[in-house]
Amino acid sequence: xxxxxxxxxxxxxxxxxxxxxxxxxxxxxxxxxxxxxxxxxxxxxxxxxxxxxxxxxxxxxxxxxxxxxxxxxxxxxxxxxxxxxxxxxxxxxxxxxxxxxxxxxxxxxxxxxxxxxxxxxxxxxxxxxxxxxxxxxxxxxxxxxxxxxxxxxxxxxxxxxxxxxxxxxxxxxxxxxxxxxxxxxxxxxx
Length: 190
Fold this sequence. Notes:
Elements: H1 2-31, H2 33-42, H3 48-68, H4 72-91, H5 104-119, H6 126-150
Helix pairs in contact: 1-3, 1-5, 2-3, 3-4, 4-5
Membrane topology: Multi-pass membrane protein
Transmembrane segments: 51-72, 79-99, 105-126
Protein name: DoxX family protein
């Protein structure tokens, strides 16, 4: 029951966080990379063209990945880096409160991303489905191998006795699997 609680909480957190990031990424995309880069340059973000492109791609694509639950840890890591950059270069010098341009929203979003990096996105999502399918297949293969190791021999012909020389084998013994001793073969009893 505890696991279901985590899975539901992770789903809600992923979807809400994903919607916020997709919205911010879409807003930057609507303005375009040049306009976003100009705004970044004006507030002192280093490498404004690259930073603008990074923010647009990571926020848009990362948000979608969080919503559907695919590559959650990787998407959350990219978004965490994005939020650290926002805190360091934009919001950090303005205090905590968001109405003063502070870091509270970027900090909260970054902390949730950190939790998703550390704990994953739960079983309700594409990652969870793929992981569950892979785990069940691996368990099935292991069980089949374990059963095969305990199964009785299915061969009709007895195994060749290659541990004793032909002269030490029982009288009437016929072994057609030993090809290196053709002169010592005995015909089957009859």
